[in-house]
């Protein structure tokens, strides 16, 4: 049985402070203890393939005890790999020295309102065009008005969001997990295409089956065998 590996938050070193009360910029390398892992082959699942005929379905296939290998009807398979933790003699997950390069910087009061405004303008243009059609005036004019109004309003919200954004460094507790391949999910979907003939009023279209896609995805159970703390950049809001 694996013994849980964990580091107490109180024993972690104090992290550097972002200058200017979280409104400045800080670029720093932070050392910490990370899980010692090794890429491990867990087994294999069937490879994807297509057929010209078939039917849609979805099912879950679980491996029998000890069996972790599977192929499709053509003998094709895909290997499944994961980064597995290594263990100490007492069964606890090993940790190793690591370093994280962090750049802490609040949102820009220049680019954030622009990005927010563009998104708002796109939505406003769609709404404005619809209103224009309903109100019986040119949808292009409605779209322009809607884009302008929404863009300015949402852009102002974006400026507010950036103006109150602050950053700091913090320790984030993260699970160390051991992976176990338990089976796979098998799904068959019908891939269709639209086929059209004729032009103008004589144009006729119908849907045809192109093929059937057989897709497989691994089912992996994760067991938490410990935790560690990694340094991260955290954004928070300054109350005004």
Brief overview:
This protein is α+β, with helices and mostly antiparallel strands and about 240 residues long. The chain folds into two domains: about 170 residues, no CATH class; about 60 residues, no CATH class.
Strand content: over 45%
Q: Return Rg in Å.
A: 28 Å
Largest sheet: 4 strands, antiparallel
User: What is the helix/strand order?
Assistant: EEEEEEHHEE
Number of helices: 2
Q: What's the pLDDT, averaged over the residues?
A: 80
Write a structural description:
The protein has two domains: 168 residues, no CATH class; 59 residues, no CATH class. The longest helix is centred in the middle third of the chain and has 25 residues. About 11% of the residues have low confidence. A hairpin with a 6-residue loop joins strand 7 and strand 8. The chain has two helices and eight strands; from the N terminus they run ββββββααββ. The radius of gyration is 28 Å and the shape is flat. It is an alpha+beta fold. The strands form three sheets. It has a four-stranded antiparallel beta sheet with strand order 3-8-7-4. Helices cover 20% and strands 48% of the residues. The two termini are 52 Å apart.
């Amino acid at each position: 049985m694996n013994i849980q590996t964990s580091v107490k938050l109180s024993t972690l070193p104090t992290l550097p402070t972002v200058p200017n009360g979280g409104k400045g910029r800080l670029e720093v390398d932070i050392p910490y203890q990370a899980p010692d892992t090794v890429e491990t082959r867990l087994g294999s699942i069937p490879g994807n393939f297509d057929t010209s005929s078939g039917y849609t379905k979805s099912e879950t296939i679980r491996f029998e005890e000890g069996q972790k290998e599977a192929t499709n009807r053509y003998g094709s398979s895909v290997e499944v790999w994961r980064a597995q933790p290594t263990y100490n003699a007492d069964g606890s997950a090993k940790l190793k020295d690591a370093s994280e390069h962090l750049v802490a910087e609040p949102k820009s009061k220049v680019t954030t309102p622009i990005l927010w405004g563009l998104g708002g303008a796109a939505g406003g243009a769609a709404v404005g065009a619809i209103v224009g059609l309903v109100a019986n005036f040119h949808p292009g004019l409605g779209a322009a008005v809607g884009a302008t109004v929404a863009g300015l309003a949402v852009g102002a919200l974006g400026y507010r969001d950036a103006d109150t954004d602050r950053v700091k460094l913090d320790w984030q507790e993260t699970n160390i997990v051991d992976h176990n391949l338990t089976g796979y999910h098998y799904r068959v979907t019908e891939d269709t295409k639209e086929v059209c003939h004729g032009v103008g009023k004589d144009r006729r279209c119908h849907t045809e089956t192109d093929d059937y896609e057989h897709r497989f995805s691994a089912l992996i159970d994760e067991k938490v065998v410990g935790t560690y703390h990694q340094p991260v950049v955290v954004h928070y809001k300054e109350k005004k």
